[in-house]
DNA sequence: ACAACATATCATGATATTGTGATATGACAA
DNA sequence: TTGTCATATCACAATATCATGATATGTTGT
């Protein structure tokens, strides 16, 4: 604890110009998650940061659909939808079941729906 | 309803190669939000798609902090933090109160905390 | 085996976002 | 008013992401 305080007075860390609140910094640092996790989490949220993917998600919140239904409902070409579905799959946001020639897509779990809905609530305020 | 079916047989929409499920498409299309909203929502979620911003959010979930505390806790230079705080502000994710020379930042509302936590739950599974 | 269909992958030019150095603002103290 | 501190803004090179055309894969019917 005293070590921490001395350390910070030595100015050998990045923030050289200000006088930080050591106690608050200690508290929040203790509760941070692993560095890697922030990157994983950012990758995950990045997926929601694209209107096309959000549209696809919003459809799948309502019901499961095959690729060509998504194309039709969103008026997008097949390549675009398929590409975005790949990204959604790779990030564990949608899953699919093969039914003959078709692939029926659905959301992997409730988290996705929750995040979508809370986000929508936020921007509609 | 019959109109819809005839329309789709005319192949004058983008998805020409497959035989979509008209009924499902109708159902989901009816419940879609305005085109613009998808863009707004994507802009909002984009903010969560960057590790630095997530780190800042994760700190503010725990307690309110001034800029220089955030720099110190995250070992980032002031410009980086300030820039990201500007983006967070512009997108209504954080707010701040001036206290003398300092600016004390906090999350705008509970939505932010919820989205952060549900996302974290998801990737930790 | 072959054709047709539904979906997936690859490659790419156009566009957007990143962190950061340089600089500006605004508050307090002397 | 001058200097210092805390924070904000601007500008930009490096990097990432987008939609899409071209092409591949895998399934069904003949």
How does this structure look, described?
The structure is a homodimer. With about 120 residues, the first copy, chain A, is mainly alpha-helical. Chain A has one domain: Winged helix-like DNA-binding domain superfamily/Winged helix DNA-binding domain (Arc Repressor Mutant, subunit A), CATH 1.10.10. Helix content of chain A is about 60%, strand content about 10%. The first copy, chain A, has seven helices and three strands. A three-stranded antiparallel sheet of chain A has the order 1-3-2. In chain A, a hairpin with a 2-residue loop joins strand 2 and strand 3. In chain A, helix 5 packs across helix 6. The longest helix of chain A has 15 residues. Chain A is elongated. The interface between A and B is large, with 64 and 63 residues. Chain A binds a DNA duplex (30 and 30 nucleotides) through helix 6.
């Amino acid at each position: 604890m005293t070590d921490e305080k001395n350390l910070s007075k030595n100015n050998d860390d990045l923030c050289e110009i200000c006088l930080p609140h050591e106690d608050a910094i200690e508290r929040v640092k203790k509760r941070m998650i692993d560095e890697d996790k922030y990157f994983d989490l950012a990758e995950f949220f990045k997926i929601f940061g694209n209107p096309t993917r959000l549209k696809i998600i919003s459809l799948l919140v309502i019901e499961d659909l095959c690729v060509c239904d998504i194309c039709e409902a969103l008026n997008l070409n097949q390549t675009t939808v398929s590409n975005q579905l790949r990204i959604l799959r790779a990030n564990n946001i949608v899953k699919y079941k093969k039914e003959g020639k078709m692939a029926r897509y659905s959301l992997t779990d409730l988290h996705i729906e929750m995040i979508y809905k809370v986000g929508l609530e936020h921007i509609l305020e």
